[in-house]
Each structure stands twice: as C-alpha cells, then as structure tokens.
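Cross-posting from the chemistry board since nobody answered there.

I work mostly on the small-molecule side, so proteins are not my area. We synthesized zinc ion and want a rough idea of how it might sit in this target. Sequence and SMILES are below. Is it possible to get a predicted 3D structure of the two together?
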Amino acid sequence: MSAASSSSSAVFEGLLDAGRQLESELVAFRRDLHRNPELSLQESETAAKVAAELRALGYEVRTGMGAHGMIADLIGPVAGPTVALRADMDALPIQEETGLPFASEKAGVMHACGHDAHTTMLLGAARLLAEQKDKLRGRVRFIFQSAEEINAGARLMVEAGVLDGVDEIYGLHNLPTLAAGKVATRFGSLMGSVDRIDIALEGKGGHGAIPDQTIDPVVAGSAIVMGLQTAVSREISPFSPVVVTIGKLHAGDAYNVIPHRAELTGTIRTFHPDVQRTMQERIERLAGSIAEAYRCKAKVTYTEMSPVLVSTDACVAHVEQVTDALIGRDNRVEAAPTLAGEDFAIYLQQVPGCFFWLGSGPQEGAEQAFGLHHPKFTLHEECLPLGASLLAAVALKRLSAG
Ligand SMILES: [Zn+2]
Ligand SMILES: [Zn+2]
C-alpha cells in the first residue's frame, strides 16, 4: 500500500473487502458454470445466466453480440473516457477428470481453461463498480464474449461494434502455475500469434513395391515436415521465438499402397508481429518447393487466427500501479512470455489496453496444480474475489477523479 496515496488506498481497501464479502456467492456462481460448461459458440445458457445477473444489478444488457456475447455499460455522472473490461465464457472439448463434487455434468466438455472463473470475476466487478457508480468520470463497458478457445469470439465482438467508443480495454487470465493472490504483468508482447496452415499434397498412388511408377506424397510430406523447421532454425533470428508444429499428418490406408494424397495441418506461433507477417511467404515457399522437388503438387492454405498479444505500455503501468496498491508490490511478478495464444489480442489491435495473469494455483512449495487445458485442471477459488476487485479497481482508478 505504500505507493498509494491515503485516499486511493482507502478506495482500494474498500474494493478488496467488498470483493471478499462476495466470495461465497462468486464461488457458487462459478461452480454452477463449471457444472454446466458449453463449447465455443454454444454458450447460450451461460450467457442467459450472466445476462440475468447483470439485469438483477440494474444493468441494461445488449445480448446476442458475436454469437452469445453481450455488453453492459455503467455510466458515471460525469462524462469521461470509456474503459472496457472483458471476460470469456466458453469451455473446451475435454472430459473432466478432477473428481470434484461440482465437476462437469456434460460428457466431453469441461471448463479446463477457467473461463467460468473469468466470467464470474467480471460479474463480481460489475457488482462492485455498480456500488461506485457516482465516483465514475466516464463509462465502464463490460464485455462477455463467446468462443475464445477457437479464436473466433473477439473478432465477432469487434465486428459487432463492442469497441465503438471504447478508449482502453483490460482483461485477465487465471494462471495455475502462479499462486493465488499474485498477479503477473509484462510490458509489450505477452502471448504469441496463432496461425494455421493446411497443406494438401497431390502425388500419384500405386503399388507399395513399385515406387518408380508413383509419385509418393508420404515421402514429400515427411520432407516438408522436416523442411519447415528450417524456416525457424535458418531464416529467423534465434532471439525471436517461433514455433512451427505439424499436429496432423494424414495419408494412406494400407501398408503396401502408396497413396495419391497427403494432408498436413499445423500451427505457427510467433512473438513479434513483424515476424508473423513473414511466415506465410516462408511456409508457402518451403512447402511449395519441397513438394516440387519430390514431383508433388502442394496447395498451401495459410490462415491468420490471432495476432501477437501486445499490451500498451501506459496500460500495463496502470495495471501494475493498481495491483501494487491493492495487493502490494511483493505479490506482483513479471510474467514469462508464452507462445500460447489469446484472442484478446484482437481487441488490442484496435484500442490500447493490457492483458495480465491472475494467480490461481497453489502456494509456492505445494504440489503443483495441473495446467490449463488439462483434464485435471483446477483453480483456487480464492482468486475469484481478488479478480473481481482487481478488475473493478483497474476501471475505477482510471475513471476516478483522484
Ligand atoms: Zn484456453
Ligand atoms: Zn483461456
């Protein structure tokens, strides 16, 4: 608390306490979502529950934005900027194995990324901020989006106009490898870009014992898998992280037949927008020329799914200042970069903002929790009230006079 002035310190302490008082309600809401997960673009029941909660708090809610997304605005008495806070609502096609009493009741669907917690925290923030409405100089926009896991929701929300009039946007993600009660921030790039590649190879099939009468797309495809790695090792600075992963390679049905076709699908991750922009040419050139060397035809489809997630310096500094005032400098660490993707990056392409990590794991020294997207993923629910308070504080501090 040392860095904060006494008046803002009082505001923050109030928010922290008010968040803690909501803990049992937040936990109950999150467990209900956890029991009833919905896949990307199918979050209709989740959205209905969120909209009902917002309306009960007095919000006017615009639903049906970008699939099942919605926005609600809190407008202060004095005009000023608009700060958006965002949460995601979708679950993953994973069979839960936690054995928790509130485990998923839907076979093969699980909140294994903690979006149930994010949604709950943002609702908590909506409640905390509604009580502070008179202090706002400007507007807070709450954005609940569909389909983060398939990199579709944020784009749909932007197309639906949710950023119209928004000056800054903030969002968080829980992090099970960071102890609950802590926050991790990072200036600049935080998460990688996500692109997809699909390579269709056309050869000429035939008898597995007479290769000279065929054009073998399996050998060409294998060479492409290996060759693509040289885009990383020979063409890009070793100080610029890039991952090329072929996750799927499909060809043939029989051990003694050379097939006509092979299909390769993979993902490209980069950490710098200028490197991401070069990847399509590299992949098309390498795949195309290697296929040609093996007498195959290659059709390369390159799809940009989400950009590098780059926070705005001033907004990162703002989150750090608010975090330090709320939980103390000792509880904030520098976030390690990751090439995992997050479609929050799409909002950050449009407006300034900051994305940060909220610890949801066990305390240091305890046995480590299972990670995001794991069938045994769990989170420490004490992160729920803190997340709610933190989001509320980020908006309130930005929009309050002091
Ligand atoms: Zn995820
Ligand atoms: Zn996630």
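Reply from a structural biologist on the board:
Welcome over. Reading the output above for you: The CA atoms of residues 189 and 310 lie 4 Å apart. Residues 113, 115, 148, 173 surround zinc ion (ligand 2) (CB under 6 Å). Happy to explain the token format if needed.
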